[in-house]
Amino acid sequence: GESVGLHLPTLSVQEGDNSIINCAYSNSASDYFIWYKQESGKGPQFIIDIRSNMDKRQGQRVTVLLNKTVKHLSLQIAATQPGDSAVYFCAENKSTGFQKLVFGTGTRLLVSP
Amino acid sequence: KAGVTQTPRYLIKTRGQQVTLSCSPISGHRSVSWYQQTPGQGLQFLFEYFSETQRNKGNFPGRFSGRQFSNSRSEMNVSTLELGDSALYLCASSLEGLRGEAFFGQGTRLTVV
User: Fold this and answer.
1) CA distances (Å), A5 to each of A30, A50, A113, B108, in order?
2) CA distances from A74 to A19, A81, A102, B99, B109 (A)
3) Which of A43, A93, A106 sits opposite B106 (nearest CB)?
4) How far A74 CA lies from chain B's nearest CA (Å)?
5) Contacts of residue A44 in chain B, CB cutoff 8 Å?
6) Nearest chain B residue to A107, by CA
7) What would the pLDDT profile of B23-50 be if each residue is shown by its tens digit?
């Protein structure tokens, strides 16, 4: 079925390191992608999005890269901080017919001081 | 500016009953979308309402329904509850819909016994 998968369920990094969270998506028709952060006991928080006509987008300390050839999405977090510890989800949006968001399973990022 | 408010925060229901969950979006947001989050299935999109109309829909059975009022507040109803409906139900509001930044509430934790 439809799926957006993540390569690593848990990523452990040291404070100050750069983190890279990966995501593979299955539908080449997807044309919009979002990264969310979810802290324990809270709802997801929008981090950054990217449309399929772009291959890179930067935000504050975050960069999303999109490789449509291999259907791969990544989130890079620069100078990772303990406050970045959370579960990160990617999601894809398909605009054919009804739109719906398809989410990945999530990667837990653990940042050690 | 108040965030997205979901009520109740916790709910326990018996199999076969029905339940109604409420979501108050951020003022000015006309799009409200609903999601189910479980450890097994992750985050799954239920449906999206915009200006009182269901605009997009995920792959859930007809037991899951919703509506949106003229003030953009939304309710989600689940009829004939099953044990597998136990989950965290999240709603999100946005200006644009499923594309663009969405703001999530803290969710309603539903337990079906």
Assistant:
1) 14, 17, 29, 26
2) 10, 18, 16, 19, 30
3) A43
4) 18
5) 43, 90, 92, 104
6) B42
7) 999 999 999 999 999 988 889 999 999 9
Q: Residues B104, A91: contact at Cβ < 8 Å?
A: no
pLDDT tens digits along A19-74:
999 999 888 889 999 999 999 989 999 999 999 999 999 999 999 999 999 999 99
- Separation CA A62–CA A85 (nearest Å): 14
Distances (CA, A) of B3 to B24, B94, B106: 9, 11, 10
CB-nearest to B42 from A45, A100, A106 is: A106
Structure-token pair, residue B104: 């999530």
Look up residue A14 and give its amino acid: Q
Asked if pLDDT for residue A76 goes beyond 70, the answer is: yes
Tokens 């004939």 found at = B80
Q: Is A98 on the interface with B (CB under 8 A)?
A: yes
Question: In the structure encoding, which two tokens stand for residue A3, read together?
Answer: 């799926």
